[in-house]
Amino acid sequence: MTTLAPLQTAFFSETGSRPRNEDRLFVQQVDAETMLLAVADGMGGGSAGDLAAQLAVDTLAAVAPGAGEEEPQLPALIQAANERILAEAGRRGLPDMGTTLTVALVAGDELIWAHVGDSRLYLFRRGDLRQLTPDQNAAGRLVAAGRLTPAEARISPYRHLLEQCAGCGSCRPDRGRIALQSGDLLLLATDGLTGELSDEAIAACLRQRTDLEQAARNLVAAALAQGGHDNVTVILAAV
Fold first, then answer.
1. Does the structure show a pLDDT above 60 at 67?
2. Domains observed in the chain
3. Which range among 13-17, 42-46, 70-74, 95-99 shows the weakest confidence by mean pLDDT?
4. Which end of the chain is more exposed for a tag (fewer CB within 10 A), N or C?
């Protein structure tokens, strides 16, 4: 395994036009070469979305590995969050409580990810932006089938129909891994960003970056300028 320099990270979250922020983010340095990142976008009305997203990141904090431990099974972390949210929803009588959960582990020169819902993980490499996680919603399925373009999916009412989430019963996380290169940039974002900005607009913003923290703020500000109809949360991690 090639050793790359430690990640630099920046993150920002904004409520937008919603009455409360139901997004949560998670950044944990495990050791000098390992970092765990996640975003969660809660749903369920009232305080249920806040609670579901918070339970998800609390689960990651409780069961994520410490330095020197074996590689975590990220789908198992999502399943643990799913079970915890289901139990709390049953206890509180909140059957619609759930959250997206996109988790990325950077270990040396490797990225390992797992994901449920429609928050996204992107790889920005040499000026090109690539979405790594599939959108687990009805619009994403139609894009995969060739029945919608990505631009059409961004404004389709089907984008709100999640097919997987933590708290939605028996969730089935997608997963993957890729080799990282020096100069890579990772972006984790909730759909408050991707619902307002096209991939081309996001890539253009990242190409103009000079400072990582300012780039995170610029992405959120651009989404708000387009209407900010949802909570907007981003994490940037530079290799």
1. no
2. 8-238 (3.60.40.10)
3. 70-74
4. N
Residue with tokens 């944990």: 28
Residues 6+ apart with CB under 8 A from 62: none
- Quick: pLDDT tens for 143-155: 888 888 887 887 7
Partnered with residue 128 across adjacent β-strands are: 125
Task: Count the residues in the chain.
Answer: 239
Whole-angstrom CA distances from 134 to 16, 152, 154, 167 are: 25, 16, 13, 19
Strand 101-107 to 34-43 pairing: antiparallel
Return the closest-CA partner of residue 190 out of 100, 73, 86. 100
Residue 50, phi-psi category: left (phi > 0), alpha (psi -120 to 50), beta (remainder): alpha
Asked if 8 contacts 216 with a C-beta cutoff of 8 angstroms, the reply is no
Rounded to the nearest 10 degrees, the angle between the axes of helix 199-207 and helix 212-225 is: 140
| Helix, strand, coil percentages in the chain from 3-state DSSP, rounded to 5 | 35, 30, 35
Contact assessment for residue 78 and residue 116, using Cβ atoms and an 8 Å cutoff: yes
- Is the pLDDT at 100 greater than 90, yes or no? yes
Q: How confident is the model at residue 71 (pLDDT cuts 50, 70, 90)?
A: low
Contacts with 138 (C-beta within 8 Å, 6 or more apart), sequence order: 158, 159, 161, 163
Instruction: Fill in the DSSP letter of residue 63.
Output: H
Rounded CA gap, 170 and 30, in Å?
Answer: 29
pTM of the model: 0.92
Residue 86: count of CB within 10 angstroms of its CB: 21
Residue for token pair 């992107």:
122
